[in-house]
Amino acid sequence: MSILAAENISVSLKGRKVLTNINVVVQVGELLGLLGPNGAGKTTLLKALAGLRSCSGRTTVDGRDVASLSPDERAKRIAYLPQGTEAHWPMPVKTVVGLGRLPYQRHFAPPSEADRAAIARAMAEADIGALADRRLNALSGGELARVFLARALAVEAPVLLADEPVTHLDPGHQLAVLDVLARRASDGDAVVVVLHDLGLAARYCHRVCVLDNGHLVAEGTPDQVLDDALLDRVYGIRAARGIHDGHAFLLPWEVSAR
Questions:
Q1: How many CB atoms within 10 Å of residue 14?
Q2: What domains lie within the chain, and their CATH numbers?
Q3: pLDDT (0 to 100) of residue 85
Q4: CA atoms within 13 A on the CB side of 96
């Protein structure tokens, strides 16, 4: 059953076509990876899916046009984790994570019991319990990335869109974050994640969509899509691949000879 769908999405920025007639459907319980080289249009598509980027075409969540939803309604259905980890606010981490509950709160009302429970769950999932009372502007880039992930998790929306959530993390925390997103999908959420690491995409994603120059050039399971011909054509690389402990792995190995 689909929960999020984009139909004929096109976006132009400053007179330049950034996305052209993109069709994407995300299923309940699916972890979908958006892949492609820099400038391919991945972030623009994710923002269009979230209703944060003006576009032609139509995006729906649970069959409802995203553009027709109020900001609070949209925020309850679609949690969005943007790129970037810079923050200069001297706010406690637990307060920042609590911002994910704003769509559920009346103005100036204190957090409810349900809000506090959701915040605690999100902080535990992102492994930032020890940072609860730290100030945001005193954290490392990797710590900030996990705090912002927890803020998105705290929404507990049925759709989670994450833009490069592992970029600033060490390998252990990269795996931990993808484990969290995979668990969210297995629990029934629809998760879309922008990734540059093809190995992580091959291991974790149920399906991948590959963008290149604003076009959707391939869609399917990682095994189907990430073959030698596509990696050469889109990324200009060759890769080593195999199976370890039942998981597929793909390792970019060298630049293709062109």
A1: 5
A2: 2-255 (3.40.50.300)
A3: 67
A4: 27
